[in-house]
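Can't paste images in this forum, so I'm doing it all in text. The chain is below; anyone willing to post the predicted structure tokens underneath?
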Amino acid sequence: MLGTLASCHRPWKLDAQDINVQKALPPLQFALTEAQTGQTVTAGQFRGKVVMLYFGYTNCPDVCPLTLYHVAQMVRSLGNSARDVRFLFVTVDPDRDTLATLNKYVALFGAPEILGLRGGPAQLQAVAGRYHAAYSVHPSPDPAQYAVTHSAAIYVFNREGKPEFMIAGLSSQTPDMPGITRDLRHLVDHDSI
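Text version of the structure:
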């Protein structure tokens, strides 16, 4: 029986898009304020963890909450391996997303591996620009006119802070949770893809 199972195992293989991500993106680097502690954290403090980096905002009506809901499910499905994963939610709307607001928001998803990060405009622009994450904020005193847009990709880095792949589609109603979780578990278990 063991021989039969072994012969069914497919070798791990990256697709062309993942290889391009590894070539195009720089290593994880930032200095931002962590919402729960109010302390500045750097990318170096997450060495040894698989890091998922995401840019969003707490007033997002659909994309962000659905993405974080799916991330929380995915992290829970990792069981004990979840301790080796961190999901960093970087707000693109720091004017409204205070540390308290951001901390309360990420706590709603019930996964301690999800952390809220905040920076000033220059810090945010530098980090988002480093990973080609698009966003725009058009403030207005009228909440109905306050407009924020952002890209929805999740950038995944290995334990050494090197880019491995990007996750897209977690904001859809039916993402490929088994496939994405499998990719993440492989990275957690093997240190790199």
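Residues 1-19 have pLDDT under 50 and may be disordered. Helices lie at 2-8, 16-24, 63-77, 99-107, 121-130, 177-190.
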